[in-house]
């Protein structure tokens, strides 16, 4: 049989069927038929997997910014420090806890910001340019609206004379750096609870021409009004509420400053001296080796 005279076609193949022959292609080279009109479209190659190092996979993400609270009842805190890193750390943690926060880089700027912001608590550094924290605290206490504002020093100056100078200027608390955010937040929460917890107490006390108005946080000596910072007022009112009873320093610290605040026993002595300078020496009597008591004798 001469195959050259009869070229192979599907019709004269060995199959007798009239159906068209089936076409086979190799599976791994099969390509989909192009869609008419899209012959020029090119397909992107599949991106190979890339194994990232653990250093990249577990790199900590920066904290998301916390927006200040819009609650009208939020406590306002003014942060005064010349270190921008400390200010940023405090602002983030305070806003996270729901406080409304403002800041100032030195004591002079704090005196400008405070009357506009009206803070409930002021966190104050000692060593700052232009006006240091001790001088700023004294000037803040001279402003009537800040007589009852909590002023807390946050400073690297941990010497006793710095602490005494801070309390002499009118500070309520003294905390040495480095700052521990969680401990600081707990301490601030204790101040807030103390303001919000109602206490059953006598509204006013009158002894030897001295009138103590608890509701108005005012003291009158023979009709003359005497301005006292918050802690000095609380100390005087606490002693006057139990005349002739002797209180030790530790007991006064617990009742006036609370268990959540760590201050030295020397703090009581400083506050007693400041109260005596303003209302007279004869109202608070020292019992050597024991403590203090309120004296009702003329």
TrEMBL record:
GO cellular component: cytosol; protein-DNA complex
GO biological process, alphabetically ordered: regulation of DNA-templated transcription
UniProt keyword DNA-binding, yes or no: yes
PANTHER family, per database record: PHOSPHATE REGULON TRANSCRIPTIONAL REGULATORY PROTEIN PHOB, REGULATOR OF RPOS
Name used for this protein in its record: Two-component system, OmpR family, alkaline phosphatase synthesis response regulator PhoP
SUPFAM superfamilies linked to this entry: C-terminal effector domain of the bipartite response regulators, CheY-like
CDD domains: trans_reg_C
Domain OmpR/PhoB-type: residue ranges: 202-296
Annotated region described as Disordered, given as residue ranges: 1-32
DNA-binding region per UniProt: 202-296
Bias type Polar residues, positions: 1-26
Record keywords, A-Z: DNA-binding, Phosphoprotein, Transcription, Transcription regulation, Two-component regulatory system
GO MF, one example: transcription cis-regulatory region binding
Source taxon at top rank: Bacteria
Domain Response regulatory: from-to ranges: 76-192
Signal peptide, first to last residue: none
Modification 4-aspartylphosphate occurs at: 125
